[in-house]
Amino acid sequence: MIKPEIVEAKQVGEIITQIEQNGFTIRALELVQLEIEDAEEFYAVHQDRPFYKDLCTYMSSGPVVAMVLEKDNAVAEFRKFIGATNPAEANEGTIRKQFGKSIEENAIHGSDADETALEEIEFFFPGMLE
Ligand SMILES: Nc1ncnc2c1ncn2[C@@H]1O[C@H](COP(=O)(O)OP(=O)(O)OP(=O)(O)O)[C@@H](O)[C@H]1O
Fold this sequence. Notes:
The protein is an alpha+beta fold. It has helices at 4-8, 12-21, 36-42, 52-59, 74-82, 95-99, 114-124, and strands at residues 25-32, 64-70. The chain has one domain: Alpha-Beta Plaits. The protein is 42% helix and 12% strand. It binds adenosine-5'-triphosphate. It is an enzyme of class 2 (transferase).
């Protein structure tokens, strides 16, 4: 998921170019405006964290780009490609290093496990996996 500040900054194309150049195949793509309740559901795993409320406000502040990407070992490969949560700690050349502004506004989200990816695909593209 490409986060709202990137859509606002018109950097979606640059990031999608890098996604494709790094061997990921786009299987689904949609521009979506999350309501705050949607962001709360998507990030429910973080509901007890101090940043949860701010995170949900931010993630519903403008449209995001949701994508289903395919590659061998996609989850791990994508996490390596996007870099550490905090852009300041992300490796050179990663998406978060290049485009992230802060630990919160870090440009992009990637599923953290195959099982989470299935849930997140169902969240954005209901029925796609049936
Ligand atoms: N300490 C923090 N302060 C503010 N926001 C944070 C903090 N830690 C994480 N976040 C925000 O919450 C999101 C989810 O945090 P998580 O720990 O799952 O990181 P991640 O797995 O690297 O990111 P994502 O799940 O978005 O791919 C982060 O991407 C970031 O936007």
